[in-house]
UniProtKB/TrEMBL annotation:
Belongs to the metallo-dependent hydrolases superfamily. It comes from the Bacteria. Transmembrane segments: none annotated. GO terms for molecular function: hydrolase activity. This is Thioesterase. It holds the Pfam family Amidohydro_2. Residues 6-300 form the Amidohydrolase-related domain.
Length: 302
């Protein structure tokens, strides 16, 4: 418990100051963990500090929280105001909509903000692996020409890309990493291995193995809750340790995905569980996963 942590992916929100449609509109959106209504409350630095108090968190990275898409820069400005007042977060991932006409303008504006290190735009895709077609050109997907045109502006901005996509779309990410090698891709939430059946895990392992061959990809060990099941080291160790085996500790980092993962676990269960899962690795590897990879990726001096 003495090794320091950089939490590489968490959220904050003030529902009175900002608009987050997924948290404020009715009916609630379908969500992989179930009912999102318990999240409909402010989550501010005091709440994060209370949740993380036992885990020696020395720095953190804010992840865009699906703020009003009409004004993604408003969220970024708000996070900077919070950081100035509260001393956290230490870096952030902002939002940009890569298939929109203003993608290049928004990317440049985000890159000019001091805390922004990366951007996220969740690509469209199919809901189940059996629906995946490797030749697809779904509008707004990783293979969409308009989306890819926007993505190419990231390289000139120097920003990373936060990829959140289910594992059956990772072949698209392999092509993206190959075609635009100058942009670092940070895979969120282990490629969403929600199906822990034999076939589901086999498909996830194969997709992750192919992605691991791309040198410009890193992985967040986060967001791997299984609907209806409590977060435990026994449940999560197989996917966490397999990701570390494939990518190496130097390309893996822990993250809480709080408060979202708080629907199924406490902060101590998630981060204490991650510590337990990697406890058998050499201390240098543990330090890299808990702190070093995130510090390097997000340029945090902590």
């Amino acid at each position: 418990m003495t090794l320091p942590i950089i939490d590489a992916h968490h959220h904050l929100w003030d529902l009175g100051a900002n608009r987050h449609p997924w948290l404020q509109e009715e009916p609630p959106i379908p969500f992989r963990y179930g009912d999102t209504r318990p999240l409909r409350r402010n989550y501010l630095p005091a709440d994060f500090r209370r949740d993380s108090a036992n885990q020696h968190v020395v720095a953190s990275v804010y992840m865009e929280a699906e703020h009003d898409p009409a004004d993604p820069l408003r969220e970024t400005r708000w996070v900077h105001e919070v950081a100035t007042r509260e001393g956290m977060p230490n870096a952030m991932a902002g939002a940009a909509f890569l298939d929109r006409a203003d993608a290049a303008e928004v990317i440049r504006a985000q890159a000019a903000m001091p805390l922004v290190r990366s951007l996220r735009h969740k690509p469209r895709g199919v809901a189940r692996p059996e629906e995946y077609d490797p030749g697809h050109r779904i509008p707004g997907s990783l293979r969409c020409p308009a989306w890819r045109a926007g993505y190419r502006h990231l390289a000139e901005s120097g920003l990373h890309f936060e990829l959140q996509a289910p594992w059956w779309h990772l072949p698209d990410a392999v092509e993206l990493a190959r075609d635009v090698p100058g942009t670092l891709i940070i895979l969120n939430h282990l490629g969403l291995p929600a199906d822990r059946g034999r076939a589901g895990l086999a498909g996830w392992r194969e997709a992750m193995a192919r992605l691991s061959e791309a040198p410009n990809v890193r992985v967040k060990l986060s967001g791997c809750c299984v609907p209806g099941r409590r977060w435990t080291p026994e449940l999560q160790a197989p996917v966490v340790l397999e990701a570390v085996r494939l990518f190496g500790a130097e390309r893996c980092m822990v993250a809480s995905n709080f408060p979202v993962d708080g629907l199924l676990a406490s902060y101590d269960e998630v981060m204490g569980g991650m510590r337990a899962i990697i406890a058998g690795l050499p201390e240098a590897a543990q330090r890299r996963i808990l702190h070093g990879t995130a510090a390097e990726t997000y340029r945090i001096d902590a």
